[in-house]
Amino acid sequence: MPPPPDVVALARALVDIPSADADEGAVADFLAAYLVERGWTVERQDLAPGRPNVLATTGAPARVVFSSHLDTVPPHVPAREDAEFLHGRGACDAKGIVAAQIAAAERLRAAGVRELGLLFVVDEEQNGSGARAANRHPRARDCRWLINGEPTENKLATGTKGSLRLRLVAEGKSAHSAYPELGQSAIDDLLAVLAELRAAPWPTDPLFGETTCNVGVIAGGTRPNVIPDAAHADVQIRLVGPVEPVRKIVERAARGRARVDVLTAIPPVQLTTVPGFDTALVRYATDIPNLTSWGTPLLLGPGSIHVAHTPEERIAKAELQRGVELYEGLAQVLLSRRPEGGA
Length: 343
Prior knowledge:
Strand content: 25-35%
Low-confidence stretches: none
CATH topology of the largest domain: Aminopeptidase
CATH superfamily of the largest domain: Zn peptidases
Number of strands: 20
Number of domains: 2
Distance between the termini: 34 Å
CATH class of the largest domain: Alpha Beta
Helix content: 25-40%
Mean pLDDT: 97
Radius of gyration: 22 Å
């Protein structure tokens, strides 16, 4: 059996492979070949050409599965290192985590543990289609514990907020801007909806805190001397409770002024924790609600979400190494637990 991988070197190799904007094929090819070379049985689950989930097993039923995602947000930022950090797109979200999970799994295999699996999916950052496809995989029935990886600063998450992604589409009537009474500004209608959303009484929750609403994209119009006949805004709402009450708030604000297209809806999740591990609540959503067939989920990973999706994305090498140890220890604890109803 090959020696355990250098987790920083593996993370750097992954970071150097671009995988944004539905372009995960090259990094999936690299990982599949890497794992086959190390003796894993690897399956590819193709969602579309160049977009495969990667599932690796030892040949035994995988009772514990490490999981994370292969895609990143754009733009690609090549890897670089200094004495303390690995920098680059995906360093903490989530290619460093993928490397730490593989390194932990390799250490467990070297100790004779075989009831392990690795599941790396595509399209986490946008629509969750990779996780939804993986949820239909027949190997999910073997899994009792899913250790999902996102940057939690090496703390077990007690829960994750949900996410509601929307597009608000306003349609107006174009006219010469000198005669606004002859037209209907789609931008004005859209801004009125967004102003109402900013003032909305969003739900709160004792565990998850406040609902938050971010307007991430606004587009509309063609020229300053034309009343705009079309405009849209892309909105992401971080949920602390059920989707439906929040959707109704948006529908009321948009009524008569804009159409509401729901792009994705992910509920908040309360998660299992394990004695001896530090814990924290995270405000972001994950693939966990789309992986319900894969046993009881836990969420843990090195790195900070505060630098993810930024030009300063990085992960401390010491934190990456500690993540390997925590993943290994967590899997050992979970594998030691007897099945429900066992003697």
